[in-house]
Design a protein that fits this description.
About 30% of the residues lie in helices and about 30% in strands. By secondary structure, it is of the alpha+beta class. The protein has a 5-stranded mixed β-sheet. The protein has a 4-stranded antiparallel β-sheet with strand order 3-10-4-11. A two-stranded antiparallel ribbon has the order 1-2. Bound molecules: 1-O-pyrophosphono-5-O-phosphono-alpha-D-ribofuranose.
């Protein structure tokens, strides 16, 4: 599970499906939370690392945003679109943005941004940041940013506007390729649990 927003949002669904975590896990710094009743363990990882743990098989399944999947490009199976954490990947900038001669784009998603502008036939310099990318146009580091937008509040409060829509993003259930075959029953059981409590979830595989 990714630490942060997706985990918070998933907790209610986990509870509804009977997966009850230790009561004090929120106050603790423990990274592995046992769920003895289901003979499983939750590994709490940085969101960007979830596909890595799953690709290497140290986690059989994972919950992760499509933004991370597109950026990390790991060899994993996408089982379900959980339809939670919906947001969009956009190009944004100042309302009075003028295309520069040597345009620069700041982002936490250099792979997605480079691919997008290449497909658009635009030459840009992509600058990798680790967060608060909305700062970049405000202080002159880059004219545009590529980032996820959910409520739009961060853009609005910083005087930025959406310029182009790249893609929609939702949370996915992913599986390790061999776990998918060798532990098919257990993997299927987890997928079914999500499907039961999230009626809008969509089967991808
Ligand atoms: C994400 C994203 C935007 C913001 C969008 O950042 O990078 O900054 O949320 O949400 P909104 O449209 O609802 O305002 P996050 O909070 O993960 O922090 P970060 O910028 O430090 O990565």
């Amino acid at each position: 599970m990714p630490k942060g927003r997706i985990f918070e949002e998933s907790l209610i669904f986990l509870q509804e499906s009977g997966i009850v975590l230790e009561e004090n896990f929120k106050d603790s710094r423990k990274l592995i939370i046992p769920v003895p009743h289901f003979q499983m363990e939750f590994i709490l990882a940085k969101p960007a690392d979830v596909p890595t743990y799953v690709e290497y098989g140290v986690a059989d399944v994972g919950v992760v945003g499509k933004d991370v999947l597109l950026e990390e490009d790991r060899d994993v199976y996408e089982l379900l679109d959980l339809e939670i954490g919906r947001c969009r990947m956009v190009v944004a900038g100042l309302a009075q943005y003028q295309p520069a001669v040597q345009p620069r784009v700041a982002t936490k998603y250099p792979t997605i941004a480079s691919r997008y502008f290449r497909e658009q036939g635009q030459q840009v310099e992509v600058i990798k940041l680790n967060g608060s990318v909305e700062l970049a146009p405000l202080i002159g580091l880059a004219e545009r940013i590529v980032d996820i937008v959910s409520t739009g509040q961060t853009l609005r409060e910083n005087g930025l506007v959406e310029i182009e829509h790249i893609c929609d993003i939702t949370t996915r259930l992913i599986a390790n390729r061999s776990s998918y075959r060798m532990k098919s029953e257990a993997v299927e059981d987890i997928a079914q649990k999500f499907l039961q409590v999230i009626p809008k979830a969509e089967v991808l595989r």
